[in-house]
Amino acid sequence: MTKPWRAAPRAALSSPLTLIVAAVTSLLACFLGTAAVLQASAAGGAAVRYQTGITCPDSYGPMFGKGNMPVRDIPAVTGAIRRHAAAHGFGAPVVGQFTNVLRGTEFNGDPHYKIRLGYRDQAGLDNLTLQQGTRAPGLWLGNVVADAEHIGVGTKPSLQGVPLPPVTGIYRDLLDPPPRWWCSQQSGAVIDRLVDDPIDSIVFATDGKTFDDTIKAIGLPTMQYFHVSFYEPAPATLSAAEDLLQRSKDLVADVRADLTAQGLGSLIAADVPDFGRSVQISRQAQDNVFVSILPLALISVLVGCAGLGTVALQWYQRRHAQLRLLSARGSGPAALGGLAVAELGLPILLGGAVGALAARLLLGVYGPPGAPDPSAELRAAGVAAGTLAVSVVLLALVVAVRVHREFELGRVRRGGNRVRVLAYFPWELATAGMAWLGWTRLAHYGTTSRLGNPLPQVDPLALTYPVFVVLTVGLLTARLAWLALHASHRARFWSRPALQLAIRRLAGARAPVTGVLVIGTLAIGTLATGIGIANGQEEALDTKSAIFVGSNARLDTDSPIGMGQVAMPAALAGTSTVVGELTGTGSVVLVVDPATFTRGAAVDRVPGDDLAGLLERISRPDPRGTPVIRVGHTAKQNTKLPDDLPDAVVAGDLPVFPMIGTSPGYVVSRTVLSHAQLDGISKWSVLTTAPMAEATTALRAAGVFIPNRISRESALDGLPFFVVSWTFSFVALLGAVLGVVAVLALLVAVEVRRRQNALAGALVLRMGMRPRTLLASHLMELGALSGLAIVVGVVCGVSVAGLSVPRFDPATFLAPRSELPDPLPFVLTVVAIGAAVVALAGWIAVRSVRTARTAELIRA
Questions:
Q1: C-alpha span between 682 and 703 (Å, rounded)
Q2: pTM
Q3: Alpha carbon distance 584, 559 (integer Å)
């Protein structure tokens, strides 16, 4: 005879629903536990990626530099760096050298040129654009001077009578801002001709020997700019960044010790100036996300384990007769607990493994845009393994304890009174108290970002506030639904039999109905809250930067382009506008061009649908004064305008406006100002939707002076916004998982009642009810349950997100405040999915009636 333990895996197939529930419960528990670890690590990787994107590519590793470096000491310094670099995993160093201004350089017989001679190892020439000539040993001259002064390839310059190498190439000058490869060398390699730079051209030597021979020939004692760095691959993970930082510090220490031994210890400055701070910020970002999601992750895993405990109780009830027989034959509680493991252990292990694997494979879908550390992947696997171990032990323990109590102690554990007490306990008051506590903590969130800390301090209670609010509303809704179903026997709708039957079916399954209602409400509310807050912070970053800059890019200029003396370049004509700015009366006054403002400025961020009408209104002269759009009106704001302009006559109000924000200000049309009034405006800016590099190139080609410029990418530090978004993306993930649980619970509840539905459906069909009416009855039942969960969840989630988004704003000092994005797409998606689930569940319920056999109906 085959022992039950050996036949357990095959015996489990007799109840596929139990197998599915056990596997899915294990899958979701392991998925959430694994996802929490990976989410936090990916946040660190995403922070590293963000920080590397805003720093120079050679500043990830150590940097050595000095101004006015003695030429005679350069070989000792570079030699020490090269000797120690390989030992710490670095490649060949890139040495950059730039002389001071060499006056009296002669080209084509003219001795009045001022140049700077420079050279950079390795890919220096590769990152210059050669327009004429070759890489033959010699000098490369910038194209601006070469074209203007007709200096061609082959020219032999000299410096105060000392011959210099011939010009072998003409390259395109590096303009401000330079290509990213040159950003650390901007002081030496870039000429800003529009700020009266005294240098005519940066002249690059094609190779190190040519450069060294030239410096020796002219007898230059010092090098004005001396810089040594490494172009290492950008680290993709936080652990890689920390390793790179540590190796950089070790290399700096060894080079210092080497130079000190040579008596040159104070010769050069060495540090990791930018990336050390970047790594620190990335570590803080990872820790913030981890601390924020840890409570929710722990709760989720514990709920999953509790679900497996419920599966164990269901298995015990289903196998009760077999367990009694085996116990009577001498099997102990441990052996019978092992039987449960033998029967359900494989589905639990497979489900957990699939959940952990799915969490890793789908990280790019639900997580931050960064790579997790390998150590984090190991920790995530450990969490999954630990969750599986706890689940299996819990399965065996629950069964063993029940067997011991019932079969060995001879008493059955009666839990009816305890369950009744738990049902009547006001859990919603406890969750409401937690929500209130989180709300009080939320008021202080983000205040440290105003004090120079790039990331706001994290308060886990503040971050759990939205979830506790949704949970409170879900529990309250479930309690009211329970009471309503308890009193539903008084309902009399026999004139509508489909509705009456739906009510009775709901009342007959109050416990599953309220359970599905709580899970569904919590799922939809949590999903709405997570998506709303996460997307709200990203949109807040876009809106704040757009309003602050005024458009995609803002380039400050002078009066020639503002007065129209220099035409807008053709490349920018369709995407740009010119704005003047006046101050002096307490209110900022912008002078705009109504004809071009809407196509160049960030008008899509301005609330209101009649901006074009307001601009047209202020373009018409008013005998009473200057027609204006009033922005951010306060009681202290007066109508006096600067530069003796007539007092303001308000044509309309707006709460926010590009460049002004929500500060008190006025918008004036240039069409109502005279030429003399326009000439008095000293500050003009070009607002453009074009990329910054494209706009800078076009304006420089037109000879426009650009003292300052700013783009949306560089206007704000986006990391504080991203950290909030990454945190609540996990909340959204939790809501999505709960949504899957709610859908499965609804379908399982329908399947569990298959026999009852089949018998009741067969009876009402025999009594004359049409199949269409029966289907309508099931749709009413399931639609009422799903509809209530959707309505309560959406209203609660959207409301909580709307209240929370402004409070999670990490830059409240910058207008406008964060706002909830349009929830309509989310609502429509949830309604569509809910309708599909209800239709599927109704079809399953009716199908059970049509496919039921006579013997099954008799047994039911």
A1: 18
A2: 0.84
A3: 19
Q: How many CB atoms lie within 10 A of CB 245?
A: 20
Give the total residue count for the chain.
860
CB-based contact 260:80 (threshold 8 Å): no
* pLDDT (tens digit per residue) in 95-147: 999 999 898 889 988 888 889 999 998 667 889 999 999 999 999 999 888 98
Classify each residue of 162-172 as buried b or exposed e, where b means 16 or more C-beta atoms within 10 Å of its C-beta: eebbebbbbbe
The helix or strand, by DSSP H or E, that contains position 563, with its residue range, turns out to be none
Q: Identify the band that residue 22 occupies on the pLDDT scale cut at 50, 70 and 90.
A: confident
Residue 452 has pLDDT above 50, yes or no: no
Go through 102-136 and write b for each residue having 16 or more CB atoms within 10 A of its CB, e for each that does not: beebbbeeeeebebbbbbbbeebbeebebebbeee
The predicted pLDDT at position 138 comes to 93
On the 0-12 / 13-18 / 19+ scale of CB atoms within 10 A, 496 is middle
Alpha-helix runs per DSSP H in 753-823: 754-766, 771-807
Q: Decide which of 196 and 157 is more confident.
A: 157
Cα first-last separation, the chain: 33
Helix axis angle, 374-403 to 320-328, nearest 10° = 70
> Could you give the CA distance from residue 860 to residue 854 in angstroms, rounded to a whole number?
10
Please say whether the beta carbons of 757 and 566 come within 8 A.
no
Closest to 814 measured CA to CA, from 711, 605, 661: 661
Spatial distance between the Cα atoms of 668 and 673, rounded to a whole number of angstroms = 9
Single out the residue of 32, 42, 733 nearest to residue 352, CA to CA: 32
Question: Within 10 A of 161 (CB to CB), how many other CB atoms are there?
Answer: 8
List phi, psi (to 5°) of 687: -100, 130
Whether 431 has a pLDDT exceeding 90, the answer reads no
Tell me the CA distances in angstroms from 194 to 175, 191, 335, 691, 702, one per residue in order.
Answer: 10, 9, 87, 20, 11
Check residue 149 and give its pLDDT: 86
